[in-house]
Amino acid sequence: MQPTDRPRIGIVGAAPWQAQGLAAALADAARWELVMLGTERLRGEMFDACVLQPQEAGEAEAWLPLLPPALPRVWVGAAPTTPQQAATAHLGTDAGAAQLRAALAAVLAGLSVRPAADAWPPSAPAAGWPADAAEALTARELEVFELLAKGLSNRDIAGVLGISAHTAKFHVAQILAKVGAATRAEAVALGLRLGLIGL
Fold first, then answer.
1. What pTM value is reported for the model?
2. Do residue 24 and residue 102 come from a single domain?
3. Quick one: 67 and 133 in the same domain?
4. What stretch of H or E contains 156?
5. pLDDT in tens, 45-68
6. Out of 119, 147, 170, 176, which residue is the most buried by the measure of CB atoms under 10 Å away?
7. Beta-carbon neighbour count of residue 64 at 10 Å?
8. 50 shares its domain with 105
């Protein structure tokens, strides 16, 4: 894929209206090309990622052999329990359009995403993560971390939490220091990998 090309995203629903709903939720993000398709087209076409909404887990398991093993995918609702080689996101059927777009962007970047309800407490520290970093983050820092993961600026974080931009900047700096990250993006990647934050 050339850097100027838009990623090609396959959209699959168990029913046509499901696929249409997924496409509608992603349609205002002009950064990718959306292709609606049935399961019979999964095997033969080339995609950069797929967004799939099976009705039940058994159906999700049946779709797995149709997907290239390394193809990033976002499951909405039912998802297979089989470990997957590709970057994978699992969202509930109540996920909003912003969450869906964020999950798709994450898997395209090579990150796996799980529902926020499953994210805490983490089962084990990620490699390279300071052992006491998770415990060191305050409740407010975790709130800021979640907003940081959604791409909000310090000013936007301040507006959401009703704090000053200076205070938001301080919290972001504390998060970066505690998780040992040099940049906001690196902190978010570490937070997602450990399960401290969800998308």
1. 0.57
2. yes
3. no
4. helix 154-161
5. 788 999 999 888 888 888 888 888
6. 147
7. 13
8. yes
